[in-house]
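Each lists sequence, tokenised fold; shown next:
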Amino acid sequence: MEWYTDLCEYYGVSPEEALQLGTRSSGRKPSLPASATTHAVTDMTFEDIWALSERETIEDVYKFYKDQGAWSAFRQCVRHKDLKSLHLGVIQSLIGVGSIFDGAHICEYGSGVAPFVTTFLENLDPSSAPALLITLTDVDCEHFTFAQYRLPKIIERRGLENIKLNFETIEPSSLPVFADTSLNAVLCFEVMEHVPSPVGVIKNIQSHMASGAVYVENFVKHEHGVDDEQDGPDLLSARGERALYYEILGHDFELLHPSLAESEQNPNCTRFWKSEI
């Protein structure tokens, strides 16, 4: 199947329209379609959507992801169509360190449209696929709703009966409580810069991880001007906890590739951490 197949079906657009709606450009104001689960958004930049509310509370911040309609559904699908080699590289590394096996529990945290799990499911051999529980988590937003539409369709199309999906919506007042089995692998890609408390999130994830589980993350550090001291989708509170977040990882996890340690020169790379607790 093509990257746009389910996207076009869900939103009633052509492949060309899907590509246009998800392609980044400065100051763009795409005419995003409505769906059965969201409203249309027109004549607004991403920044305009953020400015619809004061965003002073966690509830206000989380509402931003509802306010944007299908913006991130299209953007994430378009962006990740060219990152499948990254997805497969991460998955192969997880297999290599023994984190994906028959009976394993895998989580894509803050998944949005679930690009890593999508690529994984599209490349699994149905005749030899292990029995897996895959948990997807995110706030209540259209891009997460689209993942809940697309992933079961992929499983059905490809005959992946051994794969079970679990969707956990993150509420403003609490962090997810995962299924009964411990997590063996957690992927958290371009998420921490958007959460109110990265320290709270990693402690919650850690409390649900099996011994020796692997955590794959990057915590994007965008360039900010000296006067850029206001919240946007990247939260000031997240930026303020970055150092403590990596201190916790350094204390409780083993960095599997030491050359990728967090530094000013290397802030945004994808890192693999093995739980030591």
About this structure: Residues 83-275 form a domain with the Rossmann fold fold (CATH 3.40.50.150).
